[in-house]
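Listing S7. Sequence submitted for prediction.
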Amino acid sequence: MKRTKSGHHVAARINGFTVEAFVPAKLPPVPPLKIRGSLPQLQEQALLALGGLNTVLTLLPDKALFLYSYVRKEAVLSSQIEGTQSSLSDLLLFESDQAPGVPIDDVTEVSNYVRAMEYGLGRIQEGEIISNTLIRGIHGILLSSGRGHDTSPGKFRDRQVWVGGMNPAEAEFMPPPHSCVEECMTDLMQFLNSENLEITVISKAALAHVQFETIHPFLDGNGRVGRLLITLIMCQAHALNQPLLYLSLYFKQYRRNYYDLLNYVRKTGDWEKWLSFFFNGIVSTAREAIITAQRLTTLFQSDTVKIQTEAGRRAGSVLRVHQALKDRPIINLRFAESHSGLTYTTVSHAMDVLCKSGIVREVTGSQRNRHYAYIRYLDILNEGTELR
C-alpha cells in the first residue's frame, strides 16, 4: 500500500554543506498496515516456520552446542555484510588463542559481535525489556575494540552522518540530524514495548528494523545492531524459545534488494512491500536452520557409529574427544583433555584415530599447539559464509 513518505525532511549541516536529512514518522504507520493479498498467507507461513524452529530445537540432543555454533555463524555473516573478511574458522581459531588467517581487526569485530549478542540476549532472557540503555550497552561491547573503537561506543551519535557514497553529495540516504536521535529512539522503544498494537511480533520486528536503520543512531555499527534487534524482539515476545533466527544470510544473499526496499519504504510509505520481503526471509531462514540442525544431528549419529565400528577398544575415549569436538568444532589437545577428563596421552591417541578416520583434520600445520577441526561439521556451518 502506498502512503505519503514515512517521514519528513529537515535541513542539516555536514562538512560545511546544507543537506536534506530524513526524520522518520513514529510507528506504527498511518494509515494502519493492510495485511491483504498474498501477505496473510506469507505471514502465516512465517509464524509456522518459527513454530517449527522452536519444535526442532526441543528435539535436539545437543541444543547448547548447536546454539554456540549458530550464534557464531550469525556473527560472521552480519560482520561480512559490513565488509569484514573473517570466516567462521578464523573466529574459532581466534577464540582458542590461535592466530586467524585474516587481519586481527576483522576477527576482533566478529568476536565483539558474539559478546554483544550474548550480552543482549542474556539480558532479555533475564526479563529486561529492550530499551535505549540496552541498545547502547550492546553497541558499547560491539565497538569496544578493533575498528570503530574510536567512534563513541555505547553513545548515540553527536553529528550528522550519511549512508552510501564516498561523500554527502553521493549519499544514498541522509539519516536524521543527531539532535533528533534521542527522541526518535525513545519513540521506537515505546513502539517496541507497547502491548496494545494489533500487529504480529514479526510485523513489529520488520517495522522496527527499518526504523532503526533509518534513525541510524550510532556513528558506526548500526547495521549489526539493527540485525540483532530483530532476534531480540522475537525472544522478548517469546516467539523464539532460543536465539536461533538470524536474517543476515538472507540479507547478504539479497543485499541490493534489501537496501533498495529500505529506501523504498522511506520514499513511498509502502511498508507492505517490505513486509513481504521480510516474511519470506523468516520462512527461508527458519527452514534453513531446521535443515542445518537435522543435518548436524545425522552427522553426529553417523560419526558415532563409525567410531564405535572402527576404533575398537579405544572407542570409549575417542567418543569422549568426539564430544569435545561437537562442543567446539576447532580445538587443541589441551581443550580436549580438559573437556573429556582424559589424560593428554589418551587424547592424543584418540585424535590420531579421528584424523585417520577422516572425521578430523589438523589445520594449523604447526608442531606445537596444534588445532584440529571437525571438518564436515564446519563445512555445514560454513555454508553461506563463503567470501565473494
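Caption to Listing S7: primary sequence and predicted C-alpha cells for the chain studied. Residues 311-382 form a domain with the Arc Repressor Mutant, subunit A fold (CATH 1.10.10.10). Residues 12 and 18 are 6 Å apart (CA to CA).
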